[in-house]
Amino acid sequence: VAPFGPDDIETLGGDKRVIRNKRQLEAIVGNARKLIELDEEHGGCRSYMRSHVILATVKDLRKQCKLMGDMGCYYFLYVVGEEVPSNEDWMKRRT
Predict the structure, then answer these.
(1) Position 95 confidence tier, pLDDT thresholds 50, 70, 90
(2) C-alpha span between 24 and 21 (Å, rounded)
(3) Residue 25 exposed, middle or buried by CB count within 10 Å (0-12, 13-18, 19+)
(4) What single string gives the DSSP state of each residue in 8-66?
(5) pLDDT tens-digit profile of 40-88?
(6) Is 85 exposed, middle or buried (0-12, 13-18, 19+ CB in 10 A)?
(7) Is 5 helix (H, G, I), strand (E, B) or coil?
(8) Cα–Cα distance between 19 and 12 in angstroms, integer?
(9) Calpha distance 25→39 (Å, rounded)
(10) Position 3 pLDDT exceeds 90
């Protein structure tokens, strides 16, 4: 999605099968671009993520990306295979 432009976002905005919130679609495209930048800057996303402890990574991801909350960061890190605490422990840390 990183190469998507305004026309692609407009097309997706009219598709009932996907998120139709233009701001969210723009954030998804922008976040994909940012992850590519971080990947290139650090020699891989894994190197970027492992350059911080988990809470610092989440804080930095939230700073670098748009519309990405704590749970979005947690889920992203989980999906890409980073060692994250159990969801219960994560929720305790966040409150």
Answers:
(1) low
(2) 5
(3) buried
(4) HHHHHHT-TTS---HHHHHHHHHHHHHHHHHHHHHTSHHHHHHTS-HHHHHHHHHHHSS
(5) 998 988 888 888 788 888 889 899 999 988 888 888 888 888 888 888 8
(6) middle
(7) coil
(8) 8
(9) 21
(10) yes
What is the Cα–Cα distance from 5 to 44, expressed in whole angstroms?
24
Q: Give the separation between CA 65 and CA 28, rounded to whole angstroms.
A: 9
Tell me the residue length of the chain: 95
Q: Which two tokens stand for residue 8?
A: 């692609």
Q: How far apart are CA 61 and CA 90, in angstroms?
A: 16
User: Over the Cα atoms of the chain, what is R_g?
Assistant: 15
